[in-house]
Design the sequence.
């Protein structure tokens, strides 16, 4: 019986395609990118879907839908701060500036996140 689980390589390719589709670029720091992809992979193995590794999950797809990568807040974060909450996705301008992703405000309403 074949194992249909996503591999780290497939998740990495997914993030590349998501960035391209949305007009973003990936964080140029390969080690950082790999750590985020590993976190996505671990969450995929635990929950069955790609939860942002920087957020808490309910473990229920419907409740977590807003933080499945790329999350619902990603585009606004990239537009406002130059990068997303976890720092994986960024604008080309932000990357060209040489700045490092920093801490940004959480857009997810507290009532949507598990305690």
Sequence:
């Amino acid at each position: 019986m074949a194992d249909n689980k996503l591999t780290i390589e497939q998740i990495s390719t997914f993030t590349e395609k998501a960035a391209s589709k949305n007009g973003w670029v990936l964080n140029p720091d390969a080690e950082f990118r790999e750590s985020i992809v590993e976190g996505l992979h671990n969450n995929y193995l635990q929950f069955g879907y790609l939860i942002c590794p920087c957020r808490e999950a309910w473990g229920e797809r419907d409740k977590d839908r807003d933080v499945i990568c790329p999350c619902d807040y990603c585009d606004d974060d990239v537009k406002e701060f130059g990068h997303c909450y976890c720092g994986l996705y960024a604008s080309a301008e932000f990357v060209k500036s040489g700045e490092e992703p920093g801490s940004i405000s959480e857009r997810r309403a507290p009532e949507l996140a598990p305690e």
About this structure: The chain has one domain: 8-104. The chain has a mean pLDDT of 94. The CA atoms of residues 81 and 104 lie 7 Å apart.
